[in-house]
Amino acid sequence: MSSIEGPVRVRFAPSPTGSLHIGGVRTALFNWLCARHYGGQFILRIEDTDEKRFVPGAADDISASLRWVGIDWDEGPDVGGPYGPYVQSERFEQGIYQPFINQLLEAGLAYMSFTTEEELAQMRAAAEAAGIKAFRFRGPERDWPLERQREEAASGKPYTIRLKTPLEGETRFRDLIRGGDEIVVQNNQLQDIVLIKSTGMPVYHFAHLVDDHLMKITHVMRGEEWVPSTPYHVLLYDFFGWPRPVFAHLPAILRQDGRGKLSKRKDDVATQRFRERGYLPETIFNYLALQGWSYDGVTEIMTRDELIARFTLERIQPSPARWNPEKLRDMNGIYIRKLTTEQLAERVLPFMQRAGLIGDPASETERAYLISLIPLIHERLEELQEAPDLLAFFYQDVVPGETYNPADLIPKKHDAAQTVALLRAAHEALSQQTDWTPPALETTLRALCEQLQVKPGPLFGAIRVAITGRSVAPPLFDTLAGVGRERSLSRLAAAIAALENLA
Description:
mainly alpha, Rossmann fold, Glutamyl-tRNA Synthetase, domain 3, two-stranded parallel ribbon, ATP-binding
């Protein structure tokens, strides 16, 4: 896996700038699986140094989303650890980063830049006008003695601190997912990036690297969008004389049509949305593990323990993964069908409560009734949010002209009068029924078909609409049993009355 000795230590270090993107969960999951497979530690660190994009409550959303999926951490903001604090703003307040930036300044490997944003914009515009495609900033202060820089700063001028990148030579690093091949970047293609903002707050490039070193991170697994920034990180590791971690840049997740990456700005992929729609955490866990990783190219349904046992970094693919909502939905259906009736009822209950079909808290009677209905939808359910609609007619009145159009009662090749006759016969037969179980109801209604010399389809279809208000519903005899004798007969009577007005 790598030449690094000792326990594997990996981290997920999100920025609290909004809801956690499903791609972020994939990054966290791969790090978590790596830690669990190799017997290491998984660390959660909140990188909140971007004050402008900081969203209050986002850090809590990140933690809640990870826990919902089933990802826990060995060290982090709420569980502590030997290398805390695990929130960058708190680390900044403790002065953790200052000695390291001072070290770079003293060594002439970083410098204070007094170039303003306006001047920088003018330089970019001038470069563009001159036909220079890639503007690379090198501040004039990079050649100033440190004493002069400090004098300028003491005068009150605002400044940033920039990395003094070499003008010559090349920077090399390896990426485990890209076969360990060496990636070579010419240093004259780099620029002097900002390490410390004018507010004194460190930027990602600097803060994450110091934190990774101090927290003894051995493997840096992150999205491939960070590959172009890695030369700067490698330079910093080398400037400090620190051992480099193993870099493993995860493949992008493309939209289903392959046109661009999944985006939390353009695509409905906030983790919370999948939870709201009724995707099981087991589904998300399993599906995301397959976004850029494969066990044998065939096996797809795997438990947490199986994924931990089978996961290796060598099986992560460098080519982009492709998001497939239909496949995710199908997988969710598979996991739903793995649940027992009682387990599914418990998962469905909050959705029924939000729909106003069941009280909150639910009574024992309500729970028992829901459990009795679950077998009717267990095989059909693919998202838990579908349950209230599928079960609504068991809880709400079915009224002709409101719930459904009375004309929907009429089967093909039948008229209203013929349908009234069918439903009257059904109402009469069921009125005499005392055993209201699915087998007994089926026996009675099939016998009625023979007596009337009609095919089951038209009669059963008309009864189904009368009872449920729909042409598609769970099996008819189970539905009648679930609705109950009194309500079933009442709905049949209402359907007959409505049809008589059409006849």
